[in-house]
Amino acid sequence: MLALQQKTTARPGRSANERVQRRTPDHGQHADPAPERAGACACGGSCPRCQARSALTIGASGDAGERQADAAAEQVMRKPGRGHVPALAAAPGGSVTGGEPATPASVDAVLRSPGQALDGPTRDFFESGYGHDFSGVRVHADSAAAQSARQMDALAYTVGRDIVFDSGQLAPHTPEGRHLLAHELAHVVQQSAAGPAVARVQRRVRRENVTCQATGLTNPDLTGDEVVAALEAADTEAIGLAQVAEDALTTNLASVRGGAAPDAAFDTILQEELGLTLANPAHFPLVRQVAGRYRRVRETLESGYLRYMCRSGPTTKLVGCTAGDCVDTVAFTCPGNRLMVLCQAFWDEPGLRGLTLLHEPFHIWFDMAQHAPTALRRADALCYESFALRASGQVAAENCTAHTGG
């Protein structure tokens, strides 16, 4: 039976050589106590984040990496546009440098939280300036992040793809805030050059798998290259959302299994969107199953396996399903069939494209054919979409909080 597509409306482990790189205040002293030394990983040391955490080092405020980040930030702010910034060298690894204190335990806690993606205009500005993909960057600016930054005696610090800010320092629409973010994003580039620990977001839409790659589209008027680029951008967004959801599930489960109490905010999202709770050990296998489903979807999007029909006719018959149409829908697929049929709404509403590419593989691989309040949450593709959005710090305009099916 055809897996009907519910129209969506919302848009929304680390390597051994990663360092904690920070931007320190120019004046004043914080009254916070000396940083607490990090304790043992809650998972016992087996999870990717904890294994990476043991190798984190702190960059001294005047070292070569900091000077290089300063220079890159100055160039990006002075001459925005691709090609102005020199190549950034990999951030070195090794032991704590410059006599800096041990990394505070609060770093671990903040890095376990999902953070938020950069807003579109800010990301576009800095991707153009650095010539680097920042889709995987997550910023942390809540009260826990602020406390962690103060314990690091930093306005902000960067670990891999995560940037943590003191209170009021994430301000990309002010000159000072934009410059600070430019500096921290330079560290993201440095650390990615040092060796990726988190799977890098890949744009893996194969041109030959797009039906209109030679002819393009009308309404909207897009060349074949522009169609492929639009699908690549949507693919990248979907991969990023799936990765955040997978990471959040894996790290929170590991933390609770290690003896920590469930994170209240995360567990609320987990209950409301997927009907599960880390307060119940009987749900642990189901949480692992859900994380595995996000991984399967992410790997599918990264592999280039999917094919795309750019626009449906009045009806389209997919092998294994009855004929479908585009009435009140963005796209549709059929379980076990790798062809995704794109509808006019997909092209009319760019903000839905990434969510659609995240959503549809759940139909393909897991035969989730029902979108209804009575559906089991973890059997409804819409619930996986809304969980991923909320786990990444975004608002899910359509969500599963009203589901009654468990």
UniProtKB/TrEMBL annotation:
Disordered: annotated segments: 1-39
Biased composition, class Basic and acidic residues, residue ranges: 16-35
Domain of life: Bacteria
One Pfam family in the UniProt entry: eCIS_core
Protein's name according to its UniProt entry: DUF4157 domain-containing protein
InterPro entries listed in its UniProt record: eCIS_core_dom (IPR025295), MetalloPept_cat_dom_sf (IPR024079)
GO molecular function: metallopeptidase activity
Domain eCIS core: 118-194
